[in-house]
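call fold target=Membrane protein
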Amino acid sequence: MIDFLFTSDAIMALLTLTFLEIILGIDNIVFISIAANKLPEHQQSKATTVGLLLAMIQRIILLFFVSFLIGLKEPFYTIELSWLHIAVSWQALILFGGGLFLIYKSTSEIHEKVEMPSHDENNFSKKKIKSLKQAIFQILIIDFIFSIDSILTAVGMTNGLHSNHNYNLVLMIIAVVISIVIMIGFVNPIREFIKNHPSMQLLGLAFLILIGFMLITEAAHLSHTKLLGNEVGAIPKGYLYFAIAFSLFVEFLNFKIQKNNKN
């Protein structure tokens, strides 16, 4: 286990996944803050911390559940046509459905952030919250909604890294815990950074589209899909790491140029 966690693939997956978990958690932080700000001042910090801890617990529970389904690799149905062969398993279905969901959710989120940047926040801010328990209950629901794309991203980034599925699960849990701890400790600086650089969140959503496409091809590969006699191969995760690193490098150059222009 320890040897696996210190391999280059595991370290790259952990760093990338932690970064994406933080970027994806920004909306979660915004809604938690809106809910917390409706409480008396002495309860706001407590509500925010409890909300993020609940997010961590929920995501770990969901990780165990999704990981169990991912572990069901045996095909239960085979599609055999003259031009198509697919051995359908629960693992392939979860990955395929997760990939479609990530592409749809990311595209929708990008559209909303560009066309209607404050739509969801304005609707949520109208909801009344009278007590700490009520705030935590609403935060719990928000956490669950925002956990779905987070969990699917974790699965996409770690699936296939190790033959022992439990090792991948441990890596996902570590990334979730680190990202939540960072968000608890630096919630306000992170919010300010994203507020000043909204392109970072759009970039994170664009990464999810790549991960969604990777999950779909992974599902096709694991179900031994053959199209016109050609078997669908998996996309090496190194391509994804390079795309993310290159995009962040370009974004960093943009930050430097903007900063120099202001000076």
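return ok
The beta strands are 77-80, 84-88, 226-227, 230-231. The first strand starts at residue 77 and ends at 80.
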